[in-house]
Design brief:
It is a single chain. Helix content is 86%, strand content 0%. It is mostly helical and 437 residues long. The protein has two domains: 154 residues, no CATH class; 213 residues, no CATH class. Helix 11 packs antiparallel against helix 12.
Length: 437
């Protein structure tokens, strides 16, 4: 995979996706209010964790499988649909068999939609892993963009016609996820070699694939718990309205992850296919460029961040502006971490991936229990920043030890980086505008 070309395409797509997602988030937050936003954030965090658990790490497993050509794409696609469908059937059935109700009568629709969205997100994750492992970056970008745009349009229509309710927002989410699965799955089916689909072909190797992805499953699960622990902890401690404030601040601060997440996913696929010094060098150069970019953005947002949050979300979210500025250094550190950690992800998630995330999660939980009772949400934001900065330091030290590079080679820009960026910009200009310079 040519990381430069893939990055330029994905960056352009991600800029558009981020604008669409931001608009969707603002509409939802304004329409639901802080308390409703807190409920929505809790629902979304549950979907994220549930999708990870139900997919059993198969996003990363499918990337590794297709990158090394160990599995047929159409077989993996059908497995994704089967696994997601089992989630939709077995989870509600398990609750009924165990005698547990889906909740009060007025929440049964929301509970049912939880299983529908969860099933679709499981399929979407697994299918996108196939796209990325095949290096079909365009399919990956188009599928995610389709989901974001469809979600915005559906929520926008609702906001203009009726008062937003959590249940109606979730229905919009389900429609958008279904469209994304259709686009991504159709791309795989049409661009892959025909395979004989039998029960034997689907079952053969499925257990082995799950076993191979267990490290990814544990690592990503711990990381997801790390980044969403505040939502689950602050609800019982401070109430849904505070969760709404914190979720808005977190969501906006996570914009700092967009560029790093693009590079992290692309580099994950590169390292998975080629674990040489060349791929390590690509990771280091990407980390230097991302560090330079994010530090400048962070410094700017530290000055105007509180004002920006209030302009976008309104006066009811004044507390979110304070939380946003406190989260910025930590989110910057985690953004850089996403790039550095792609080296370990592509290397098969070694032990440091697991215990690094575990230590960070335990530290965050302990710090929240200590500081939140006296400092409230601001204490949680400060604890988050401390933990993320420490996690970055740990991974940079591990990467330096694994590759023999100095820390400065990973974080500080060099003259060749300027030439690299200039060359990519000129190449993109020639391709896009037909210039000769």
């Amino acid at each position: 995979m040519k990381v430069g070309a893939a990055f330029v395409q994905t960056f352009a797509s991600q800029v558009l996706q981020s604008m669409v997602s931001l608009a969707t988030g603002v509409l939802i937050a304004r329409g639901l209010g802080p308390t409703g936003q807190g409920r929505y954030a809790t629902f979304a965090a549950g979907i994220a964790l549930g999708a990870l658990l139900a997919s059993l790490g198969q996003f990363h497993g499918n990337v590794l499988a297709t990158a090394n050509r160990r599995a047929a794409p159409r077989i993996l696609l059908v497995r994704a649909v089967v696994q997601g469908s089992l989630v939709l059937v077995l989870l509600p059935l398990g609750l009924l068999v165990s005698g547990r109700a889906l909740g009060p009568a007025d929440q049964k629709v929301l509970a049912g939609m939880f299983f529908v969205v969860l099933s679709l997100e499981v399929i979407a994750q697994m299918v996108r892993g196939i796209n990325l492992g095949q290096h079909h970056v365009t399919a990956w970008n188009v599928a995610t963009l389709t989901q974001r745009v469809a979600y915005l349009l559906a929520v926008g229509v609702l906001a203009l016609s009726v008062r937003l309710r959590l249940e109606s927002v979730v229905v919009c989410w389900a429609i958008a996820a279904l469209l994304s699965v259709a686009v991504s799955g159709g791309w795989i089916w049409l661009r892959s070699q025909p395979e004989r689909l039998t029960v034997q072909s689907l079952w053969s190797g499925w257990g082995q694939r799950l076993t191979q992805s267990i490290r990814a499953f544990v690592t990503v699960g711990l990381t997801l718990l790390l980044v969403r622990a505040d939502v689950w902890m602050l609800g019982p401690m401070l109430g849904a309205a505070t969760v709404g404030q914190f979720s808005v601040a977190t969501y906006l601060a996570e914009w700092l992850w967009y560029v790093p997440s693009i590079l992290g996913n692309l580099l994950f696929a590169v390292v998975a296919a080629d674990r040489s010094a060349r791929s390590a060098s690509q990771v280091a150069r990407s980390a230097r460029l991302v560090t330079t970019l994010l530090v400048v953005v962070m410094a700017t947002l530290l000055v105007c961040g509180r004002w920006l949050v209030q302009v976008m979300y309104g006066q009811p979210y004044q507390q979110a502006g304070v939380l946003f500025t406190l989260l910025l250094p930590g989110m910057t550190a985690l953004g850089i971490h996403l790039v550095v950690d792609s080296y370990f992800a592509g290397s098969g998630f070694p032990a440091i991936s697991i215990w690094g995330a575990l230590i960070a999660l335990v530290t965050k939980i302990v710090l929240n229990l200590v500081v939140v009772p006296s400092l409230g949400a601001t204490g949680a934001a400060g604890a988050t920043t401390v933990v993320y900065c420490c996690l970055l330091a740990l991974k940079v030290a591990a990467f330096a030890r694994a590759t023999g590079m100095r820390v400065s080679e990973i974080l500080l820009p060099v003259r060749s980086d300027v030439a690299y960026v200039k060359g990519k910009v000129q190449a993109f200009a020639r391709l896009r505008f037909g210039t000769s310079s």
